[in-house]
Amino acid sequence: MADLYTVTDLHLTLADMTAKPLFGAAPRIEILKGLTFTIPKGAVVGIVGGSGSGKSTLGRALVRLLEPSGGSIRFDGHDITGLSEPALRPLRRRFQMIFQDPMSSLNPRHRVGTIIAEPLRLHGMDAIQSRIARALDHVGLPQGFASRYPHELSGGQRQRVGIARAIALEPDFILADEIVSGLDVSSQAQVLNLLERLVADLGLTLAFISHDLSVIRRLCQRTIVLHQGRIVEDRPTAQLFADPQAAYTRELLEAIPLPDPDQIWV
C-alpha cells in the first residue's frame, strides 16, 4: 500500500504562552522532537497521548495549520513543508480537518448549508447545492438541516455538520482532533460508526487524535503514541494493546476506566 503521508525528523517549536516576560518575546519551546512515520493510503491511524504530548500540534502540522521548524512532511509525494499558501492551495482541498468543538468551529450566524458551501466556493468547486445535499446524506442528516443554524442542533448533529463540511470537498485525508470527547456515549458511538462507514464508502485516509485509548482501540488499525513530543510506540493497535512495549503506553492502558472493577489488563 502506497503512503499518503511521509513525515521525516519533524520538529516544531512554539512560543511558550504560559510565560509572561516583562521584556521581549515569550521563550520558545520545542513541542515536536524529531518525529518520523508514515500514513498509508486508506489507513485509519490513531494518534494518542496525554495533555501536552504534542498530538494536536502534530495534527495541525499535518494539515499545514502550523509550520514545522525542521524536518519534512510529504503528502502524496509532494513536499508541503514550507510551501506558501498560494502554492499549497491546489493541495489543501485534499486534506481536511474536523475540530474538537463543533460549536466554536461553525459560524453561529450562518445556516448549515452556507457553512458547508463556504469551503466549496473557496476552492472554486461546481454544483455546490448538489454537493451540500450529498454531504448531508453521507452523514445521515435530512436535507432540511441545510436551513438550520448551529444552535438549533444537538452536539452530535453539529459534529456531523463538521464532518459534512470536510467530506464535501472530496478529500483524500481527514484529520479528526478529539471529535467525540465532548459527546455522550451514545453520540460517540454513532459518530464512530459514521467515520467507519465513510472511510469504507469514500476511500478516505483518517488520522484520529484522542486521549481515549478505548476509542482508538475501536476505530484505528494502527496507533502512534506520543509522549513529551516524541513517538514512544508506532504499531498495529491490536499488538499495542496485547503487548505494550513502552512504560508510558502501559500507563495509558492502565488509566482506561474498566466496566468491571475486578477486570485487569493481561
UniProtKB/TrEMBL annotation:
Keywords: ATP-binding, Nucleotide-binding, Transport. GO terms for molecular function: ATP binding; ATP hydrolysis activity. One of its GO terms (biological process) is transmembrane transport. Transmembrane segments: none annotated. InterPro entries: AAA+_ATPase, ABC_transp_ATP-bind, ABC_transporter-like_ATP-bd, ABC_transporter-like_CS, P-loop_NTPase. Residues 12-253 form the ABC transporter domain. Belongs to the ABC transporter superfamily. This is ABC transporter ATP-binding protein.
